[in-house]
Amino acid sequence: MIRIFELTGLTQAELTEITSFILGIHIAGVFAGNVFFWALKEAFRLCEKLIDLFSDRLFRHIRKRRHR
Predict the structure, then answer these.
(1) DSSP three-state, residue 1
(2) What is the spatial distance between Cα 19 and Cα 11, in angstroms, rounded to a whole number?
(3) How far apart are CA 38 and CA 56, in angstroms?
(4) CA distances to 39, 43, 48, 58, 59 from 54, in Å
(5) Whole-angstrom distance, CA of residue 29 vs CA of residue 37
(6) What is the pLDDT of residues 36-56, one digit of tens each?
(7) Which of 9, 10, 42, 65 has CB atoms 3.0–4.6 Å from 14's, for a disulfide?
């Protein structure tokens, strides 16, 4: 670790701050990815329900026309 300090010219506090910033960016990215995936999953679930509702009403309409 001392070798890294010598090579970069940074203090331990500065390297800790940089590392924590990178780790924070990574955690925020994972959180944003999880939220995006959840929203996408809910959107697909909503589309599935709408398609099911539309197809059910369409088939009911076709059945009513056949029986006339």
Answers:
(1) coil
(2) 12
(3) 27
(4) 22, 16, 10, 6, 9
(5) 12
(6) 999 999 999 999 999 999 999
(7) 10
